[in-house]
Amino acid sequence: GAYAFVWKCMERSTGRLIAVKGFKQAHEIPEIMRLAVREVQVLQMLKHPAIIPLIEAFKSKSGRVYMVFPFVESNAYQWFQEFPEGIPMPWLKLVVWQLLHALAYLHQRKVVHRDIKPGNILLSEGGGVKLCDFGFARTTHCGPRDAEDLTSYVVTRWYRAPEVLVGDRYGPACDIWSLGCTVAELATARPLFQGNSSAEQLWRIMRCFGPLTASQASCMSSNPLYTRVRVTTRGRTLRERLLGCDPDLFCLVESCLQLDPSDRPTARELLQSPYFS
């Protein structure tokens, strides 16, 4: 990624495979060091079967920062090579179930991941999901439905919630939006909204769902990035984009992709969805 690289290594004492994440410039740039330290601190407070565990973190003699994790072979992007039309439904249900448990755990502890996407979902040999890459994650003062002032420079663009795009206050509900985009992509092997810029991303969302909330529209109007964003005609609806999708899965995705974050269910509530019954 932009800040780090990952090596596949073998631990000499045990022979087990590990993944070593090294930060490119943490030893040179204080802001990157701050982000690295925050990631370590967040991971050290987490212990959940669907979250990648941090084995160790250390500095080299040169001051470079490294983090050590168990090695997991594949992420969801790689699954699409085997399943170009989307992940088979029984497997997908197991993946979504585990992801929701991970998010419910994080949000209960007032941690927002802020980068949910297929590339950050690892799958172990036994079918277990591991949510990884906590580089944007941080603790907040937010309960699952709360929001506060946080930076908008988070979340890979295609999975970024509208409140984050426009610079409005946000909280754990932004992870729920990202989850909805991710689950739709896992089901179809196609990203829902492929914007080439923040402005185009917002335009694509509005083309599908219509006008933003009053708070989002106010933030958008005062943001110079969006002065030229105009939606004159509606595009394909979410249902049209997910033709052939399991009806209960569609309802789950649709509930995640509400423009108003207060209308999105919490991860705990999504676990009660008919999709899992």
From TrEMBL:
- What Pfam families would the database entry show? Pkinase
Specify the domain of life of the species encoding this protein.
Eukaryota
Question: Is Nucleotide-binding a UniProt keyword of this protein?
Answer: yes
UniProt entry tagged with the keyword Nucleotide-binding: yes
Q: Which residues form the Protein kinase domain?
A: 1-276
Q: Which UniProt keywords apply?
A: ATP-binding, Kinase, Nucleotide-binding, Serine/threonine-protein kinase, Transferase
Reaction it catalyzes: L-threonyl-[protein] + ATP = O-phospho-L-threonyl-[protein] + ADP + H(+); L-seryl-[protein] + ATP = O-phospho-L-seryl-[protein] + ADP + H(+)
**What are the EC numbers?**
2.7.11.22
Q: What PROSITE patterns does this protein's entry cite?
A: PROTEIN_KINASE_DOM, PROTEIN_KINASE_ST
Signal sequence region: none
Q: Name one GO molecular function term.
A: cyclin-dependent protein serine/threonine kinase activity
Do you know which InterPro entries this protein is assigned to? Kinase-like_dom_sf, MAPK, Prot_kinase_dom, Ser/Thr_kinase_AS
PANTHER family membership: MITOGEN-ACTIVATED PROTEIN KINASE (PTHR24055)
Descriptive protein name: cyclin-dependent kinase
Recorded source organism is: Volvox carteri f. nagariensis
